[in-house]
Structure formats: C-alpha cells, structure tokens
Target: Transcriptional regulator, ArsR family
Amino acid sequence: MEERIVSMKSDLFKALAHPTRVRILERLVENDKEVCVCELIEDLGVEQSNLSQHLSILRKQQIITSTKVGLKIMYRIKYPEVLTILEKVQKILAQQFQEGEALMRHLADR
Model:
C-alpha cells in the first residue's frame, strides 16, 4: 500500500513537471474561473493538439476538470492546493537565486 501511495505522489509530480502544464495551471488561476480551451490556445501560443495532450495529463491526475458549454470546453483547477505547491516552488527558486547571488558576491570580493 505504501509503495502505491509513493507511486501516486510521483505521478502527480510528473504531471506538474512540464513548462506548458505549469503555464496552463498559472493561466487557469489568473481569473479564478473556468477558461475555454480556445483561450488557452491563444494565450499560451501552442498548437491545439499539443495543448490537448497536456490537458489530458492534467485531467488524468485529476488536477483539472472540464465541462462542455455548448461547443466550448471549459477548464478549471479541481484542487486549489496544487497552487500551493507552485507557490512553494517559487519560494524555493527565489531562495536558490539569493544563495547563488550571495556566492557570486563572495567570489567577486576575493
């Protein structure tokens, strides 16, 4: 059972491990409402087929959900907690940048 849970965690991180998917999630959180796939294509500048593949991966992991409204397919984030993960990653990157900057200053002062 423990191995299955570890595998599920890994799969979730794999779903987040692509720049396009991160951009999709960041775009979906901007308005805090459903976004049409046509808007995502335009905003992200990716091909429809490529976007569909990324959306499929996010849906498979149940990170996003979709609903059909007329001819449009609308997407939203299912679990807002995923945004906390992205925010934490942003903080880690900022800390890493600061540490690298401090090291560069130290080396420059030698």
About this structure: The mean pLDDT is 91. Strands lie at 35-36, 64-69, 72-77.
